[in-house]
Amino acid sequence: MDISVMSLSGEATNLSDSEISTFKKNFSGQLLNKDDKDYNEARLIWNGMIDKHPALIARCKNSKDVSLAVKFARNHNLLVSIRGGGHNVAGNAVCDHGLMIDLSLMNNVSVDQKKMTTIVGSGCTLGNADMETQKFGMVIPSGIVTSTGVAGLTLGGGFGWLSRKWGLTCDHLISTEVVTANGDIIKVSSEENPDLFWGLKGGGGNFGIVTSFEFRLRELGPEITGGLILYKLEETEKVLSFYKEFISTAPRDITTVIIYRYCPPAPFIKEEYHGKPVFGIGALYAGKADKGLELLKPLKSFGSPIGDVIVPKPFTTHQAMLDAGQPKGACYYWKSEYLKEVSPALSSKFVEQTFNTSSTASLIAAFQLGGAITDIGEEDTAYSFRNAEHVININTQWQKNSDPQQHMEWARKTQLLAAPFSMGSGYVNFASADETQQRVIATYGDKKYKKLVDLKRKYDPDNFFRLNQNIKP
Question: Residue 318 — pLDDT band, cuts 50, 70, 90?
Answer without folding.
Answer: very high
